[in-house]
């Protein structure tokens, strides 16, 4: 392939100069034709190497400067037999570089459909399909998965109420922003999957929801994110319940499952009681 990208050229120059590197693969958004192109895209790269355990790069970071002066670097714990991963932020770009044993190349090549070979020195790289979204397509939930997620979406709400009652804002926000909102995002993903015949990728953490949702419904979703004000959190919690009810029943109807109205009614009444008791005390 003809490569005009200066960062990819730096990566390939590095790989060509190191005998231990036998193949180079790129993953992620830079090989995804459906992803938006901007300066914030990472270079997700895998070097398949010989003699991983004795690799010189893991203990001496000077080699990183061959790509430029790093702003910050993060690396994983080097467990025996595992990949060595270096996340490197430079002024104008970021490279997430993994060193993986060449013995793992066949299995690794199957893991991510968004993969492209940049270099194969010794014909060690197996054939792979052209980069595509198939690994990341929204999957239709079975009945058990659907029921568990709806249970989670209602189960987490009393945790938020507990944090408010105890005046423990970090606890309440963690329950709301992390676990509770994640369950809502799962419902939205399934709703989008239904309308697009289970053929689309909404991106990590639903970052591309906006591309697939009705404008008003997307706005409704984004206003659910919580606040540092307890009264606002209460209001958003009840709005979120209505949103779950709307999306959850729609998904349930389309998939032939049953929406758990008992959870909905019981938890909503419980939250109203807790809020009233809090105001009365």
UniProtKB/TrEMBL annotation:
<dbReference type="Pfam" id="PF04439">
    <property type="entry name" value="Adenyl_transf"/>
</dbReference>
<dbReference type="InterPro" id="IPR007530">
    <property type="entry name" value="Aminoglycoside_adenylylTfrase"/>
</dbReference>
<dbReference type="InterPro" id="IPR043519">
    <property type="entry name" value="NT_sf"/>
</dbReference>
<protein>
    <submittedName>
        <fullName>Aminoglycoside 6-adenylyltransferase</fullName>
    </submittedName>
</protein>
């Amino acid at each position: 392939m003809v490569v005009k990208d200066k960062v990819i050229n730096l990566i390939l120059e590095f790989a060509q100069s190191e005998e231990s590197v036998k193949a180079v693969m790129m993953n992620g958004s830079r090989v995804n034709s459906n992803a938006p192109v901007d300066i914030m895209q990472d270079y997700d790269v895998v070097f398949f190497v010989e003699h991983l355990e004795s690799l010189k790069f893991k203990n001496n970071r000077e080699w990183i400067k061959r790509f430029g002066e790093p702003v910050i670097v993060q690396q994983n714990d080097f467990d025996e037999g595992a990949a060595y991963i270096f996340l490197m932020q430079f002024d104008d770009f970021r490279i997430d570089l993994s060193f993986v044993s060449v013995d793992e190349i066949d299995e690794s090549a199957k893991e991510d459909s968004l993969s492209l070979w940049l270099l194969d020195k010794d014909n060690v790289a197996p054939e792979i399909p052209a980069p595509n979204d198939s690994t990341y397509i929204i999957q239709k939930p079975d009945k058990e998965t659907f029921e568990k997620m709806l249970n989670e979406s209602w189960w987490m709400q009393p945790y938020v109420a507990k944090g408010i009652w105890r005046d423990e804002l970090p606890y309440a926000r963690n329950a709301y922003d992390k676990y509770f909102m994640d369950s809502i995002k799962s419902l939205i993903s399934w709703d989008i999957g239904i309308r697009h015949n289970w053929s689309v990728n909404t991106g990590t953490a639903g970052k591309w929801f906006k591309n697939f949702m009705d404008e008003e419904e997307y706005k409704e979703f984004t206003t659910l994110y919580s606040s540092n004000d307890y009264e606002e959190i209460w209001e958003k919690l009840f709005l979120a319940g209505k949103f779950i009810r709307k999306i959850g029943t729609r998904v349930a109807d389309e998939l032939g499952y049953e929406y758990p109205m008992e959870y909905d009614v019981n938890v909503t009444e419980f939250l109203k009681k807790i809020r009233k008791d809090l105001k009365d005390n």
